[in-house]
C-alpha cells in the first residue's frame, strides 16, 4: 500500500482571543448579563484557505512562500497537530516530522535518556529505540558526553543530538521544515548526506524551505503558498521563478531610503 | 496447484493486509463533519493510548527520576518519604486524639492516602494540558496522554505509600488478613475514577483558566466531608445516609474494610464508587470528543 496525503478543501482558522486567559468568573458574568464586552472579542484569520493538495508516492513536494504564508502550518496540519475546521486531511503511511527537532528534550536528563524520551514522542517503541540507540549516539558524535545532563551541552551539540534522533529511521512520509544546517562544518556535511539518503528512501517528501537551491535540488513538484492559499503549482524551476518575480519581490522591493530624522542641510 | 502452506501464507497475508487496511483507516484523522459515534471514538482513543504506552512509561519514569535526582538515596526516597511522614503524623495524631498509635495510624492512613492520591492527581492533572502546550504544538500526541502521565505518576507514589503503610503496620505488629489483596481491584477502580476526573478538569482548565484555583479550594472543602481524621460514628445518625452515597467516603471505606477490618466489602459499599466511575468516564470522554479538535486552538 502506497503512502498518500489527500487534503480536500481544508480551511484552518486561528482564533486570537483578545482575552488571553479565559476565566470562569467572566463566563458567569457573561451568562448573567449577555452584553458583548471588549474582553471577549475574537480576531479570526484563516491560516490556510480552501486548500486542495494530493501528494502521492514518489512525490518530492516543495512548499515556498513568504513568512506567514502558512507553510509550517500546512506541515503541522499534515502531522495532525492542527485539525482543519472545514474540509479534510487524509494521511496514509507513517509520518516522520522533521519540523521542530528535539521536541520534549528535558534539560535535567542525560543525552541517553533524552534519546528515549524524544523517540517515544516521535511514536517509536522501546524495542526500536534500544536497537537504534548506538547508531544515534554514533552519528551524533557525542559518545563521551552522552551520559551527561543535556543542560551542559552547547546548542550545536543539542542540534546534533536532535538531528540524529529525528533522522535515524527511514520514513514513509518525511516532512522537512528548514533543517539543513546544524552543528559544525564537519557535521553539516554528514547531515547533508543523511538528508539526501532519507529523501531518496522516503515514499513522500514534503519540504518547506526558503533556500530555492534546496527546493530545486530536491523537489520534483512545487506549490507556492500565499496568505494561506495555493497560488501556483508545477515544475520547481518555473515555480521558483514565479515566486521570485510575483511574490517575493512585490512587497520586499527595496523602498527608497528615507531617514526619519531631518537631514542636516549642508551649506558651504 | 497451491500447496497448503502457500495457501495458508496467502490467507495470512490477506488477513494481515486487511488488518493493516483497517488500522490505517483508523490512523486517519476523522473528517470534521464525520459523525463519528461515541463507540468508535472510544475505540480510537483506546488505540491511541496503546500506541503511546512507551511515551507514557518514559514520561512517568522521567518525572520520578527528576523528583529524586541528585539525592543520595535516590529512588529509596519514594518509600522513605511516606514512611517518615506517616511516623510523624501518627505520633502527632495519637497524642492529640489520645489513641493507640498502631490502630489509629493504620486507620488514618488508609483514608488519607487514597484521598491525597485523588486530590493531588486531579489538581496536578487539571493543569496538565495547559502545561503541555509546547509538546502539543510540536508533535501530534493525543490529548488524553497528558492527564494520564500525571495520574500515573501520582499512582506510583500512591502504590509505594500503600506498600510503606503495610510494611510499617506489619513491623508494628498489626494483624493483616488475605483481604489486603482486594487493594488491587479497589486501586484500579480509584485510578479509573481519578483519571476521568483529571481528564475532565484538564479540559475545563483549557477553557477556564481559573478552574484550577476553584478546584483546589473546592477539594479542600470536600476533604472535611470525607471521614478521614474522624470516624463516621461521630456523625449524628440523621446525616449518616450522606456517607453511603459519598463516593470518596465509600472509596475510603473500601480500603479500610479490606486492610483494617479484614472483610470483603459488600456490594452496597462498591455501588457508589462504581457508579461515579462510570458517570465520570462517560462525562469526561463525551467532553473530550466534543473539544478534541478545538483544544489546540485555545492553548
Protein traits:
heterodimer, A: 268 residues, Rossmann fold, three-stranded antiparallel β-sheet, 8 helices, 9 strands, B: 299 residues, 14 helices, globular
Compute the average pLDDT of chain A. 83
Tally of extended strands of chain A? 9
Give the N-terminus to C-terminus distance of chain A in angstroms. Answer: 81 Å
Question: Mind telling me the CATH class of the domain at 1-21 and 41-93 and 203-249 in chain A?
Answer: Alpha Beta
Low-confidence stretches of chain A: 253-268
Shape of chain B: globular
Low-pLDDT sequence parts of chain B:
17-33
- Given the structure, what is the number of helices of chain A? 8
Major β-sheet strand ordering of chain A = 5-6-7-3-8-9
Q: What is the domain total for the residues of chain B?
A: 1
Greatest interface by residues involved:
A-B, 45 and 38 residues
How far from one another are the termini of chain B?
62 Å
Mean pLDDT of chain B: 84
What share of residues are in beta strands of chain A?
25-35%
Q: Can you walk me through this structure?
A:
The complex is a heterodimer of chains A (268) and B (299). Chain A is α/β, with parallel strands linked by helices and 268 residues long. Chain A has helices at residues 24-32, 71-79, 111-121, 126-140, 155-166, 185-201, 212-218, 236-252; strands at residues 4-17, 42-56, 60-65, 86-92, 95-98, 173-177, 204-208, 221-226, 229-234. Chain A contains 8 helices and 9 strands. A 6-stranded mixed β-sheet of chain A has the order 5-6-7-3-8-9, sandwiched between helices. Chain A has a 3-stranded antiparallel β-sheet with strand order 2-1-4. The model of chain A is unreliable at 253-268 (pLDDT under 50). In chain B, 74% of the residues lie in helices and 0% in strands. The longest helix of chain B has 27 residues, at 145-171. Classes of the chains: A alpha/beta (268), B mainly alpha (299). The A-B interface holds A 1, 14-15, 17, 21-25, 27, 76, 79-93, 97, 99-100, 103-104, 106, 108-109, 113, 116-117, 120-126, 129 and B 17, 20-21, 24, 27-29, 31-32, 51-52, 54-55, 57-59, 62, 65-66, 69, 134-141, 207-211, 214, 293, 296-298.
Amino acid at each position: 500500500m502506497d503512502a498518500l496525503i489527500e487534503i480536500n478543501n481544508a480551511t484552518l482558522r486561528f482564533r486570537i482571543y483578545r482575552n488571553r486567559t479565559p476565566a470562569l468568573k467572566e463566563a458567569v458574568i457573561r451568562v448573567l448579563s449577555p452584553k458583548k464586552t471588549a474582553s471577549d472579542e475574537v480576531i479570526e484569520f484563516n491560516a490556510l484557505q480552501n486548500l486542495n493538495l494530493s501528494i502521492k508516492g514518489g512525490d518530492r513536494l516543495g512548499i515556498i512562500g513568504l513568512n506567514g504564508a502558512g507553510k509550517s502550518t500546512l506541515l503541522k496540519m499534515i502531522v495532525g497537530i492542527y485539525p482543519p475546521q472545514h474540509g479534510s486531511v487524509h494521511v496514509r503511511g507513517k509520518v516522520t516530522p522533521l519540523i521542530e527537532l528535539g521536541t520534549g528534550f528535558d534539560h535535567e536528563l542525560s543525552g541517553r535518556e533524552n534519546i528515549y524520551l524524544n523517540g517515544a514522542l516521535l511514536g517509536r517503541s522501546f524495542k526500536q529505540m534500544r536497537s537504534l540507540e548506538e547508531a544515534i549516539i554514533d552519528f551524533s558524535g557525542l559518545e563521551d558526553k552522552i551520559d551527561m545532563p543535556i543542560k551542559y551541552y552547547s546548542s550545536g551539540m543539542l542540534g546534533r543530538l536532535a538531528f540524529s534522533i529525528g533522522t535515524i529511521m527511514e520514513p514513509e512520509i518525511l516532512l522537512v521544515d528548514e533543517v539543513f544546517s546544524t552543528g559544525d562544518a564537519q557535521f553539516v556535511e554528514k547531515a547533508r548526506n543523511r538528508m539526501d539518503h532519507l529523501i531518496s528512501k522516503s515514499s513522500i517528501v514534503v519540504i518547506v524551505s526558503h533556500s530555492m537551491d534546496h527546493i530545486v535540488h530536491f523537489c520534483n513538484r512545487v506549490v507556492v503558498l500565499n496568505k494561506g492559499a495555493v497560488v501556483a503549482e508545477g515544475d520547481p524551476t518555473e515555480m521558483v521563478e514565479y515566486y521570485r518575480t510575483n511574490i517575493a519581490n512585490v512587497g520586499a522591493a527595496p523602498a527608497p531610503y528615507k531617514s526619519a530624522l531631518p537631514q542636516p542641510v549642508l551649506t558651504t | 496447484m497451491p500447496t497448503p502452506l502457500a495457501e495458508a501464507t496467502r490467507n495470512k497475508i490477506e488477513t494481515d493486509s486487511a488488518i493493516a487496511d483497517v488500522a490505517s483507516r483508523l490512523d486517519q484523522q476523522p473528517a470534521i463533519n464525520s459523525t463519528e459515534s461515541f463507540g468508535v471514538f472510544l475505540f480510537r482513543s483506546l488505540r491511541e493510548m496503546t500506541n503511546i504506552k512507551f511515551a507514557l512509561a518514559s514520561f512517568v519514569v522521567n518525572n520520578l527520576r527528576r523528583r529524586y535526582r541528585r539525592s543520595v538515596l535516590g529512588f529509596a526516597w519514594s518509600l522513605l518519604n511516606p514512611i517518615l511522614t506517616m511516623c510523624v503524623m501518627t505520633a502527632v495524631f495519637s497524642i492529640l486524639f489520645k489513641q493507640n498509635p498502631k490502630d489509629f495510624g493504620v486507620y488514618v492512613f488508609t483514608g488519607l492516602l487514597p484521598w491525597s492520591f485523588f486530590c493531588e492527581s486531579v489538581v496536578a492533572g487539571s493543569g496538565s494540558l495547559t502545561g503541555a502546550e509546547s509538546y502539543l504544538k510540536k508533535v501530534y500526541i493525543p490529548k488524553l496522554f497528558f492527564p494520564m502521565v500525571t495520574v500515573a505518576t501520582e499512582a506510583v507514589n500512591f502504590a509505594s505509600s500503600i506498600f510503606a503503610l503495610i510494611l510499617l503496620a506489619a513491623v508494628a505488629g498489626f494483624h493483616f488478613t488475605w483481604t489486603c489483596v482486594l487493594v488491587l481491584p479497589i486501586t484500579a477502580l480509584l485510578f479509573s475514577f481519578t483519571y476521568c476526573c483529571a481528564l475532565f478538569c484538564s479540559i475545563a482548565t483549557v477553557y477556564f483558566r481559573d478552574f484550577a484555583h476553584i478546584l483546589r479550594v473546592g477539594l479542600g472543602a470536600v476533604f472535611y466531608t470525607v471521614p478521614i481524621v474522624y470516624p463516621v460514628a461521630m456523625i449524628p445518625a440523621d446525616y449518616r445516609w450522606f456517607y453511603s452515597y459519598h463516593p470518596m467516603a465509600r472509596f475510603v471505606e473500601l480500603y479500610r474494610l479490606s486492610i483494617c477490618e479484614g472483610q470483603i466489602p459488600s456490594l452496597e459499599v462498591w455501588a457508589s464508587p462504581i457508579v461515579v466511575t462510570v458517570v465520570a468516564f462517560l462525562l469526561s470522554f463525551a467532553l473530550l470528543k466534543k473539544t478534541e479538535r478545538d483544544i489546540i486552538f485555545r492553548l
